[in-house]
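Technical note accompanying the year-one report. For the benefit of new consortium partners, we illustrate the data format agreed upon in the data management plan: each record pairs a sequence with a structure-token string. No post-processing was applied to the example shown here.
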Amino acid sequence: MKNTDLGKALVLIPARLASTRLPGKPLADICGKPMIVQVALRAREAGLGRIVVAVDDRQVYDAVEAAGFEVMMTRDDHQSGSDRIFEALEKVDPNREAEFVINVQGDLPTIEPETILAAMRPLENPQVDIATLTVEITSEEEKTNPHVVKIVGSPLSDTRLRALYFTRATAPYGQGPLYHHIGLYAYRRAALERFVSLSPSVLERRESLEQLRALEDGMRIDAEIVKSVPLGVDTPADLEKARRILAGKSL
């Protein structure tokens, strides 16, 4: 993505307070700041432009606002982060100035800014509707782990795949690399609008993977290949790891 296009990009960070494995997750303290603020700081370091945090709770709203970031209250009954960011998009950009929307998950406090930037690169191709990220799997355990989502893709270059399918199974069959999908998305605005207008699809329900809705509707998703999977904070152990990582960077 050319630098001249960055002003047309809007970074949206969805944050949902409810979490069964880590209650109050967006407000969890990491090096003196709530986790959701740490994510917003990583997004700011990427330099993509305007950042808005989409929340569903007043406590989270106040914490983000106190840190100096733009924040938008959204409904608390959204089924996915995509629905939440679309509500926020319509509210914060009614004049449709943003052409690209980057959805950065609110539980990635240690994500490298370069990783966020990488998610934009496939959109250099005007035929791509949605861009995402992937990394080659090196762990044998991950290859068969249903919690590790795999991309079945057609190689376009050494650093990019065209996604043909997403699955929790070990795929594709045979010799060759397997790729772990990283759930960070960059959308053309029109693609996000189209996506959220669709009903959940057959394969989406079967695999419990909403990105299949886009593929089943004929949308094109390309994935940039990066070097590592960013730490998603879902458990107390993940939280402690994130604290160690960011504490080490501040030394």
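Partners are asked to follow this layout when depositing records. Residues 20 and 191 are 31 Å apart (CA to CA).
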